[in-house]
Amino acid sequence: MRLLPLLALLALAACASEPEAPAEPVPAPAVADTSAAPVVAVSAAEAANRALGVGDRAPDFELPDATGDTVRLRDLLVDGPVVLTFYRGAWCPYCNTQLRDFQAALPTIAAAGARLVAVSPQSPDSSVTMTERNDLGYPVLSDTGGAVSLAYGLVFRVDGQTRARYEAVGIDLARYHGAAPGTDAAWALPVPATYVIDQSGTIRAAFVEADYTQRASSRQILEALREVV
Of the residues 52, 102, 133, 156, which has the fewest C-beta atoms closer than 10 A? Predict the structure, then answer.
């Protein structure tokens, strides 16, 4: 009977000497898989309605810029908020106009402590053309396959009538996208959208419009940035 207290004390001492289990590692931010082309069958209006909006977590990504260097959203956010704009491609005059508008406002955006980056489904070669044509001073990234655009809920399939109209004027999306003709990636586009993302990775402003002629202006972006910084 006298052995029981002693055995109990020895058991307690053994438990106290055991090392604590290591803490569970904090999972890294999810990175969009850019290797798989999305299969989509929604209209631009449907995509605009389901796209990410204010308060949503911005999916992290890593994409090549026009020179082949990898750009990561998480790295951009280290320095401050990020203005992320999705455009259709170098063939789109409305996209060119918007990107030039953003270029003109780039010093003011930088003065607010923010970074600006543009994303499209076109290949790096087409992005070089876009950058040089518009004399852009910010990264233009290639989301070939559209996986990042899909992660933001922006991808839609170009309908047959619009496809025929594009082909009639020589707009070959497969060539711009570096995709095989007739594949989903060849005729999938993002709804034009611009997001203001704070340093925590939260979307603080979202400008998403199914009508490709309607775009966020630099004035709207600067007003949104003032609310963030």
Answer: 133
